[in-house]
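<instruction>
Derive C-alpha cells from the sequence

<record> Sequence and C-alpha cells follow
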Amino acid sequence: MEIVGRVPSEPGHAPPRGPAVGEGAWRFTAPALESSVPQARHAVRDLLAHQGVSGHGDLVPNLLLIVSELVTNAVRHAALLSPQIAVEVSIGRGWVRVAVEDNHPYRPRPLELEADQGRTGGRGLLLVQAIAEESGGRYDVDHTASGGKAVWAALPLTPAVPGPVPGPVSGGPLTSLRPPRSAPGSPAGPRPARS
C-alpha cells in the first residue's frame, strides 16, 4: 500500500511528535462490490501483520470486523453514488485507525434497537460503535471535501495507554504494499463519538 500524503490536523488536536514502530498511513481503493469486503479485510490483516501490529487481546480481530462492517455498509448503501470506495489504515503512537470513505453525502445512522423490533439490518454500525467504546477507542463519521463521508474507528494499541489518532491520507492502489517512505504528517487527535 502506498502513502501518498496526509491532511493537516484539526486545530487543537496536533499530537506530540516522535517516532513509533510501524507508524504511518496507508490508503487503497476498491470497487463498491461485495467482493471488496473480504479483499479489504485481507489487505488490512496483511498490512497490520507487516507493520507488526498485534496489540492486546482482540485488537486485530476487532479491527478486521470493523473493516468488514464499514466496507459492507459502503457497498450496500453508497455504491449508487460511489462506485469506488477507499480504505485507510493509520498507525500511530498508541492507536490504529481504520476508515472507509465513499462519495455518498448522507451520514449513516445506526438502527435504534428495540426489544420487539424484528429488523436485522443496521446493526453493523452499532457493532462498530460498541467495539470502539468497549476497547477505549473512538468511532465517528466525517464529511469529506468532495461531499462524501469517511466512517472511521480508532482503537488503542494497548488498553491503558491511548495516544493520538492518525488522520486521513489520500489516494493509493490496493495492490502495492510498502512501508511508509517518510514520517507521517500531523494526525488528528481522538474525538468523542457522536450519536
About this structure: The first strand starts at residue 24 and ends at 31. The radius of gyration is 16 Å. The beta strands are 24-31, 84-92, 95-102, 138-143, 149-156.
